[in-house]
Design a protein that fits this description.
The complex is a heterodimer of chains A (194) and B (270).
Chain A (H helix, E strand, L loop, with lengths): L1 H18 L15 H10 L4 H19 L22 H15 L1 H5 L3 H27 L6 H16 L1 H14 L6 H10 L1
Helix pairs in contact in A: 1-2, 1-3, 2-3, 2-4, 2-6, 2-8, 3-4, 4-6, 6-7
Chain B lengths: L2 H18 L3 H49 L1 H32 L2 E11 L7 E4 L12 E4 L2 E10 L4 E6 L7 E5 L5 E5 L11 E6 L10 E4 L11 E10 L4 E7 L8 E8 L2
Antiparallel strand pairs in B: 1-2, 1-12, 2-5, 3-4, 3-12, 4-5, 6-7, 6-9, 7-8, 8-11, 9-10, 10-11
The chains are: A mainly alpha (194), B alpha+beta (270).
Chain lengths: 194, 270
């Protein structure tokens, strides 16, 4: 269990590296594959709450380091109404919220029904993006929600979700390599059948 | 709740609050460390992205050429392909000459750079360029193209000879702007949630008596300490009058969908 938890953290860190190779799809409303969030979500459903929270902290922390913009700069007398940035660390909370959502269907996952989790990962990504965009609107004032933004969220969630079976397969292999079962109930059922 | 879960939750909250309360400087230092560790991967990622874009462009051209080939066949078709390649090279040559002339004609001390990565984050309009502090670039420097203002340097990647540019189309990139032939000045910035192609910019805080018409050009005022004066920003598309102030939509002079060579302004003549 400890070995598997440690490997999920390494996998999350590795996803940050791979994310650098995944550009935005300019022809699809600038949508992209959010591999970091996907690896976190898929891992979150396979681990216990303390590990999920650790993953949320690591994922959110590094994601903010990846995305945070610098200060506005310039003369505050001229730029008196500066546009606010999102505070560093907000992603940690968003990651944790998504993690709790994924853990909500952990009983189903433990029965071997991973496809529900795969579907929920897409929904979680959409909710994550929606929450992030809502926070931007809240911090900066004025609620602006264009069709392009909605399409970007939909395409990003869908594209990311398509890769969830691959991530689950990888997690399953890693768990096997660590002699850890991420489908304990499904395994017991199989044993009973025999 | 299990005691272990409770302890983990408390530790998580403590860590999150610690991260949330970091100062701007602390955040920058952590970002510096993160990007130092990511340096080699960023370089490979950018290279791959540049090559993929070049491949896609080439594929698009190949398809056009295939249509031509099927239409004319034989030798004529082959010559047309060669002709089209020559035209591409001519255009490229013209573009490079134009850029070179621009560098010579400008009153600024500029550093040319190539865009190597587009939109690396979800919501912010940024690009990465292949010039960094080794070439004298620092944060908050203006970035131009031969058509006008592109944005400003937002972040320098230490020891990697690259930097991140916050584009004019981002809501956070504010520019003090004036409208030609009128006393009107305002703040120009991008619009939230507009990512496709060349989104229009918002010129706000104009007076209610502003007599502006579409087609008037918008330039930087030089006030605010970041952007030099008289850099072309775009031209007015429409004007909307409000109760307290007016607002204009501005079409940027730069084609942000096709950014190639840009120039970072190190210093400018007074």
């Amino acid at each position: 269990m400890i070995r598997y938890s440690f490997i999920t953290i390494l996998l999350l860190l590795a996803s940050f590296v791979i994310q650098q190779f995944l550009p935005a799809f300019t022809g699809m409303h600038q949508s992209r594959i959010l591999l970091v969030q996907l690896v976190f979500l898929c891992s979150a459903v396979t681990v216990e709450q303390p590990t999920m929270l650790l993953l949320a902290f690591v994922g959110g922390f590094f994601w903010d380091a990846h995305c945070a913009l610098g200060p506005h700069g310039g003369d505050p007398e001229v730029y008196s109404q500066q546009v606010e940035s999102l505070r560093f660390g907000y992603s940690i909370f968003l990651f944790a919220a998504m993690g709790f959502l994924m853990q909500g269907i952990q009983p189903l996952f433990k029965q071997g029904k991973w496809h529900f989790s795969a579907l929920l990962s897409g929904i979680s990504i959409f909710l994550y993006l929606a929450a992030e965009y809502a926070i931007i609107n809240f911090v900066r004032g004025d609620f602006v929600f264009s069709k392009a933004t909605f399409m970007q969220m939909v395409f990003t969630s869908f594209l990311t979700m398509l890769f969830s079976p691959l991530v689950f397969w990888l997690l399953f292999r890693l768990a096997s390599a660590c002699d850890h079962s991420i489908y304990p109930e499904a395994g017991r059922k199989r044993q009973r059948a025999f | 709740m299990k005691p272990l879960n409770l302890i983990a939750l408390l530790l998580f909250l403590g860590g999150a609050v610690w991260a949330f309360t970091q100062s701007e400087r602390g955040v920058r230092e952590m970002q510096g460390l993160y990007y130092s560790a990511m340096g080699p991967f960023l370089k490979s990622g950018s290279k791959m992205e540049t090559e993929a874009r070049a491949f896609l462009t080439e594929t698009r051209h190949s398809k056009e050429l295939e249509v031509e080939l099927s239409a004319v066949q034989g030798e004529l078709g082959r010559l047309r392909i060669i002709g089209s390649r020559v035209r591409d090279l001519e255009n490229e040559n013209d573009r490079l000459r134009h850029a070179l002339d621009y560098k010579k004609a400008t009153h600024f001390d500029v550093v040319p750079a190539q865009v190597i990565r587009r939109q690396p984050t979800t919501w912010w309009q940024t690009v990465d360029i292949d010039a960094g502090e080794e070439r004298g670039i620092g944060t908050q420097l203006a970035v131009l193209s031969s058509d006008g203002l592109v944005g400003k340097i937002d972040r320098i990647y230490k020891d990697q000879n690259r930097s991140s540019v916050l584009l004019l189309t981002d809501e956070k990139c504010q520019v003090s702007a004036r409208v030609e032939g009128s006393p009107e000045v305002g703040i120009l910035s991008g619009q939230r949630g507009r990512f496709d192609g060349n989104p229009l910019l918002r010129l706000r805080f104009l007076s209610t008596e502003a007599t502006l018409r579409p087609g008037l050009r918008v330039f930087t005022t030089g006030r605010g300490g970041i952007f030099q004066a008289n850099i072309l920003l775009g031209e007015i598309v429409s004007v909307e009058k409000g109760a307290l102030d007016s607002e204009a939509l501005v079409k940027p002079s730069v084609n942000f969908a096709d950014l190639g060579t840009v120039f970072v302004v190190l210093s400018a003549d007074p």
